[in-house]
Amino acid sequence: MTGKAFGLPFVLQCANVFNERHQTYYGKEQHLLFLIVCQNLFPAVDTQYIDTNYPHGGKIGIGNSSLDRVFRFSKLLRLHAAFHDAFGLMKSLYNVGPGYCYAARGSLPNMCFLGHITGLFYWIKMYFLHKELFAGV
C-alpha cells in the first residue's frame, strides 16, 4: 500500500467489518472503526494493545478534544478522523502503510497536517462519487 492511495475497496472492506462488529461492541463506534482500519492495514496488530494505549484514536481533534463533540455531526469528518489516526499510528509504530497522507498518490512525508488536507479532499471526493456511503447521516 506504500506510495499509492488506498482506494474504495479498502474503505468498503473496513465498512463491512464494522457492520459485522458494531452491534456487539460496547465502546464508541468511532473508536471501533479506528481499530478496524488498524487491523486491516496490519492484520498482525494487537488491537487490545492499540485499544488500551490509544483510547482516543479515531476521534476528531487531538486526544480527547472538544472538537469531537463540535463536529460529530459530520460523517465525512468522523471517517477522516478514524482513517487518519489509524494510518498515522500504523506508520509511526510499525512502519506499515502510507501514514497520515493515506489518501495521496505518491510518497509524501508522514505529516499530520498534510494528511488532513489530502484526507479531507479524498472524503469530499468520495462523498460526490459515492453518496450511498453517506446515506442516513
Brief summary:
It is built from 6 helices and no strands. It is mainly alpha-helical.
Provide a descriptive summary of the structure in words.
The chain is mainly α. It has one domain. 57% of the residues lie in helices and 0% in strands. The protein is built from six helices and no strands. It has helices at residues 7-21, 29-41, 47-53, 67-71, 75-94, 112-129. Helix 1 (7-21) packs across helix 2, helix 2 crosses helix 5 (75-94) and helix 5 packs across helix 6.
Write the layout of secondary structure elements.
Elements: H1 7-21, H2 29-41, H3 47-53, H4 67-71, H5 75-94, H6 112-129
Helix pairs in contact: 1-2, 2-5, 5-6
Query: What does the largest sheet look like?
Result: none
Q: Give the rounded overall mean pLDDT.
A: 84
Question: What's the helix count?
Answer: 6
Structural class, by secondary structure, is mainly alpha
Radius of gyration: 14 Å
Number of domains: 1
Relative strand content:
under 5%
CA(first)-CA(last) distance = 30 Å
The amount of helix comes to 55-70%
SSE sequence, one letter per element: HHHHHH
Give the overall shape. globular
